[in-house]
Amino acid sequence: MNQLASWWDGAELWIAGLPFIPQVILVLAVMIPLCFGIAWVLDRFLSAVFVLVGRAEADPAVRADGQTRVGGS
Fold first, then answer.
1. What number of CA atoms fall less than 13 Å from residue 68's CA on the CB side?
2. What is the pLDDT of residues 16-71, one digit of tens each?
3. Residue 15, Cβ neighbours under 10 Å: how many?
4. Dist. CA 54–CA 56, nearest whole Å
5. CB–CB of 26/15 below 8 Å?
6. Where are the alpha helices (DSSP H) in the chain?
């Protein structure tokens, strides 16, 4: 555990030592994909849980044949 804490402290100090603009770019480059990934996994997981519980809602924009309804079709 000490090795992980030491590594984290080193990474944190390295990021804190960067100028502001590289900090922002680095944080955004890591956090945006990470947040999208977490949101996608949570969406899939909760959708599966709702289907198992019987609480899944049908999407009215999707037909039974899998085609998306557009406009007045």
1. 2
2. 999 999 999 999 999 999 999 999 999 999 988 888 888 766 555 555 565 666 66
3. 13
4. 6
5. yes
6. 2-17, 20-53
